[in-house]
Design a protein that fits this description.
Elements: E1 12-23, H1 26-33, H2 42-55, H3 57-60, E2 69-79, E3 82-93, H4 98-116, E4 124-134, E5 141-142, H5 146-156
Antiparallel strand pairs: 1-3, 1-4, 2-3, 4-5
Helix pairs in contact: 2-4
Length: 158
């Protein structure tokens, strides 16, 4: 194992966006929406946890480079089935911030779970995924929507 040498790469603007979801019972979601959770503001705590986790990613992922982050934004939004988390991480550096964005959404989801586990131990953390990355040698990558992916698969089966 080794940490990849990125010393020869140029510093460029880099961006990564990741998402995840915590599925929960309707009564649990109601408590979140109505601010009736014993531990406090679930959405605010999850946002803060996501930002903190992005900053500490190299401490958690062994071969991940420590890089200077220029921006981290974490959104935690109630939806019909639970809460959706979105993290956008930016840097000007020699390597990307995909791991920081993914770590941010995971920590935010774990915080939601921790704050609500006394009400709903059956919550499910799901759909942790990179949505977009830009910058660096490999350029831009964006996840195809589910509809686009189905259409592409259908065309491939002909």
């Amino acid at each position: 194992m080794k940490m990849v040498d990125v010393g020869g790469k140029a510093k460029t603007d880099r961006l990564a966006v990741a998402t995840a979801r915590v599925r929960m019972q309707p009564k649990t979601l109601r408590a979140v929406r109505e601010g009736r959770v014993e531990k406090g503001d679930v959405l605010a705590a999850a946002r803060l946890a996501g930002v903190m986790a992005a900053k500490r990613t190299p401490d958690l992922v062994p071969l991940c480079h420590p890089i200077a982050l220029s921006g981290v934004e974490v959104q935690v939004t109630p939806v019909v089935v639970g809460v959706e988390v979105r993290a956008e991480v930016k840097t000007v550096d020699r390597t990307g911030v995909e791991m920081e964005a993914l770590t941010a959404v995971c920590a935010a989801c774990l915080t939601v779970y921790d704050m609500l586990k006394s009400m709903d131990r059956g919550m499910v953390i799901e759909k942790v995924q990179l949505e977009h990355k830009s910058g660096g040698r490999s350029g831009v990558w964006t996840r195809a929507s589910e509809g686009q992916a189905r259409l592409k698969a259908k065309r491939g089966n002909r």
